[in-house]
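Human: I'm a chemist; would you kindly supply sequence and structure tokens for a protein?

Assistant:
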Amino acid sequence: MVAAGAALADEVGLSRLTMGLLAERLGVRTPSLYKHVSGQEDLSRRIAVLALREAADAVGGAVQGYAGRDALAAAARAFRAFVLAHPGRYAATIGAEPTGPDDPLAAEGQRLLGAFMAVLRGYEIAEADVDHALRTLRSLCHGFATLQSADGFRWSADIDESFEWLIAFADRGLRAS
């Protein structure tokens, strides 16, 4: 049911996903959904966990065997591809807060951060700057992918070329730090 909700969120947008719409898609009555989730908020959290798991798998798999700029490029491309393919489920991750260290949301979020940490190991980042570097990478990748997903780049420059420029920019910044 969560996978169906995630797919529907990707199709219609997370803000338009409702229990009634999901029930209709699944061919069941809405009250039947409450056997699986406690409500809309629970469904969104479960979609967020799924999205973080899938994004961590995509980024983690992409960086294996790479270091430095190659790892950065692989991670950025995998993250962007995930967000573009799954905008609704990715939207569920924004602002989702773990309830504690045992929350699956925390575990999957840590896995995604771990994939980006693997990228940073290819650079000489001071321990005191690792959090800043992670936030910078997340901001760059998240910002570009969500803007593109929302059709936010309407000028004539090729979007893929702009993304490769972003990767080169991030690489230069990480090497300079």
Remarks:
- The longest helix spans residues 40-63.
- The radius of gyration is 18 Å.
